[in-house]
Amino acid sequence: MIADLKICIDKVVNPLSGEAESVEKRVEDISEKNGEIHIKYNREGLSPEDKRKFEDNILNSIKDKIDPEKVLFSSFSKNSSDIYKKEEKKEEKKEEKKDSSKDASLKVGHGDKITQKRNVAGVGKVIAIASGKGGVGKSTVSVNLALSLKKMNKKVGLLDADIYGPSLPMLLKKRGEKPRANDKKKIIPLESYGLKLMSFGLFVNEDEPVIWRGPMLGGVLNQFLFDVDWGQLDYLIIDLPPGTGDVQLSMAQTINVDGAIIVSTPQDVALLDATKGLKMFNQVKTPVLGMIENMSSFVCHKCGEEHFVFGKEGVKSKVEELKTQFLGKIPLDIEIRKGSDEGKPFMEFSKNQSGPIWKSYMSIASNVDKIFSKNEKESKGFLGKLFGK
């Protein structure tokens, strides 16, 4: 098998130089492990786009020999800050003797093929926060909702699943920090404001574009769900990217999501896309807990007048049409924007608790928690009747 694959790969052309692999010899190792093919190559001088093309060319050359879903790539370079495989410095090797943990890394590849949905170890409920459209404040809502649940004495984790535009490290003041791995090779999530955090943004430079195929996104999402030591959590909140793309589908196929929340502004163009998002969850059999109206209105600090910048009660009207729940509305306020930019989320600071935004978030968190409490009571009541308990 390996010999046949090597013959095919030798014919692959490097998009940068135009030379065949038999001449360049970038591929250093091809091996088989647990039914998967691992290909290690030298990425020196290749841009992210060149890397993608090179890997695509390899996959196309061997697709008749092996299922591309079973192929995992890893790359190395003497002079690169690539996120997947870093050369350890001598000083870091000395540190390892004192500390059993080391820098966490991500697999480059399509990930494991999922045959059935799994639960995330140690996690009570998984909540997906989604929006059909970008720019509606979904990530800000995710962070502040998580902090609101924490204030209800819940243990909460945040998973930033927006691979192309991860923003949670900025919102939680963790820019530039890197996760570590424990002695069981599990990734240790960072902690911020009492929340456990995992984000793709912790593995890449902020100005580095991510140019990936859909299956590779699913592979990283699988790692963040199953190769992270989340510990014991009441809630794991997944901040999804906008739209109804590969990440959403991978999540729905991979894990049992206990509920999805749709975030939208009141304006019609946002509601149009939010409706598509909600219907996507219905199609993949994921329960929708309800909708949150963000940036519902703005109260002028000078005149005190309330302005409905993006329209009035658009989400409230839409939930009736879609037969789902209205979880609450959050006003637009400059303090939320400032706190987000500075990594100081609104719901973490008690100075804000006298205002309407604080009350809105606590009300939404309570509504979400009540939905699960009610469902558990109804389930227990049904079992009680069934078994005479």
What is the CA–CA distance across the termini? Answer: 59 Å
CATH class of the largest domain equals Alpha Beta
* Average residue-wise pLDDT: 81
Architecture (CATH level 2) name of the largest domain: 3-Layer(aba) Sandwich
The number of E-state strands comes to: 16
* Number of separate helices: 12
Describe the structure.
This protein is 37% helix and 21% strand. It has helices at residues 2-9, 21-24, 48-62, 90-98, 138-151, 168-171, 214-226, 246-254, 268-283, 314-322, 334-342, 356-387; strands at 27-33, 36-42, 71-76, 102-103, 108-109, 123-130, 156-160, 180-181, 187-188, 190-192, 195-199, 233-239, 259-264, 288-299, 306-307, 326-332. The chain is elongated and about 70 Å long. It is an alpha/beta fold and 389 residues long. The strands form 3 sheets. Strands 6, 7, 10, 11, 12, 13, 14, 15 and 16 form a 9-stranded mixed beta sheet that branches. Strands 1-2-3-5 form a 4-stranded mixed beta sheet. A 3-stranded antiparallel beta sheet has the order 4-8-9, with no helix packed on it. The chain has 2 domains: 1-77, Fe-S cluster assembly (FSCA) (GMP Synthetase, Chain A, domain 3); 123-375, P-loop containing nucleotide triphosphate hydrolases (Rossmann fold), CATH 3.40.50.
